[in-house]
Amino acid sequence: MKNCVRMLWAVTGVLIILAVNAMADTNLPVRKQTSLGLYITAQEAYEAWQKNPEEVKILDVRTVGEYVFVGHAPMAVNIPLLLLEPEKAYYAKKPQLPLNAKFVEEVGKRYKKTDTLMVICRSGGRSAVAANILAKAGYKKAYTIIDGFEGDKLKLEGSYNHGKRVVNGWKNSGAPWTYDLDPALVYRPGA
Question: Is residue 189 part of a domain?
Answer without folding.
Answer: no
